[in-house]
Amino acid sequence: MTMMNTMQHRHRPSWVPVRGHRLRLAGVHFDAVRIAGRWGEAVADELIERTEDDAGPIVCAGGADTRWVYFLLPPGTVHRHDWPLGVQRYGWRPHRSVTYVGVPALEGNTWPLRWYSEPTRTAPFVAAGALLAVTSSPGAGPAAPRSPAP
User: Fold this and answer.
1) How far apart are the C-alpha atoms of 41 and 17, rounded to whole Å?
2) b (16+ CB within 10 A) / e for 38-47
3) I want to staple 99 with a disulfide (CB 3.0 to 4.6 A). Which of 58, 69, 90, 111 is the partner?
4) Is the peptide bond before 112 cis (omega within 30 degrees of 0)?
5) What value does the mean pLDDT take over residues 85-103?
6) Does residue 62 register a pLDDT over 60?
7) Residue 63 and residue 37: Cα distance in Å, rounded?
């Protein structure tokens, strides 16, 4: 498939900007799970492998010194699960502070954001259960108690 055909078949949800990057309110278009640095990248790699390169939207933010990996889940799902400690979750919570997540365009200059895995028609969001399985598997990250779902 040529590059032009690949670009024509890309899935761009309405919350993904056409160029550059935009801040989107977590809990509206998507919920987000954030994992720091190498652990976040290792989780992303494992999730991509387990889903045969169809993991859904994963955004990497930052540079060489500080990196964050954001896994974008369907809105309303992040607070339904008990995530391991070290996993930060962002979604709509009445009477709580709001969080914005940077979302890059699918192409062009989007620094300091980049897609680790793009949304697709078959995976418009990361599946919470699949992400939870990877973050909970032995050796996936720091062995620690889970943070309870509210």
Assistant:
1) 23
2) ebbbbbbbbb
3) 90
4) yes
5) 88
6) yes
7) 10
pTM: 0.86
| β 31-36/88-90 pair status | antiparallel
Q: Is 101 exposed, middle or buried (0-12, 13-18, 19+ CB in 10 A)?
A: buried
E-only strand ranges, 43-82: 58-62, 67-73
- Tokens for 4? 């032009």
Distance CA 16, CA 85 (A): 29
Burial label, 139 (beta-carbon count in 10 A; 0-12, 13-18, 19+):
exposed
Percentage of the chain lying above the pLDDT 90 cut: 75
Domain ranges (residues) in the chain: 15-137
Q: Which of 137, 136, 131 is nearest to 146 (CA)?
A: 136
